[in-house]
Design goal:
By secondary structure, this protein is an alpha+beta fold. It is built from two helices and ten strands; from the N terminus they run E-E-E-H-E-E-E-E-H-E-E-E. It folds into two domains: about 45 residues, no CATH class; about 60 residues, Roll (CPE0013-like fold), CATH 3.10.530.10. The site of iron/sulfur cluster has 12 residues, from helix 1.
């Protein structure tokens, strides 16, 4: 199996060609530096993304507060996280950096508020 992946490790945006030669044997070509090898392997085997979303609050004046994962989350788990976040309601005030959700699905990923919002 072969995949073309754009490396997002820096603005160069190298076009990587990632091929699975055998079980766990991944070849990455097209990178201009070694970071592209790790990026290509991870994107091929287990792509991850930082997730941003909003969570409802108990306030009528500021009904939503933005949140973000503190590290990339495996893409397969993103719908489950979004579902969990949309089910929640948080009480104001909140501070940027406060943790809303600790260790989501045993991944070590935390969800934190990205804005400080006082109670209206
Ligand atoms: S392979 Fe290296 S130079 Fe190319 S985009 Fe990735 S980080 Fe940048």
């Amino acid at each position: 199996m072969e995949k073309e992946i754009i490396c997002l490790g820096c603005p160069n945006g190298c076009r990587l060609c990632v091929t699975e030669r055998g079980r766990g044997d991944i070849e990455v070509l097209g990178q201009q530096c070694d970071r592209g090898i790790d990026y290509g392997r991870e994107e091929f085997l287990e792509p991850k993304r930082i997730v941003t979303a909003v969570v409802r609050t108990d306030s009528d004046t500021v009904p939503f507060v933005p949140v973000k994962t503190d590290k990339p989350l495996v893409m397969d788990l993103i719908p489950k996280l979004i579902e969990e976040l949309y089910r929640r309601e948080t009480r104001l005030p909140v501070r940027a950096g406060d943790v809303l959700l600790e260790d989501f699905a045993d991944t070590g990923v935390r969800v934190c508020f990205t804005r400080t919002i006082a109670r209206a």
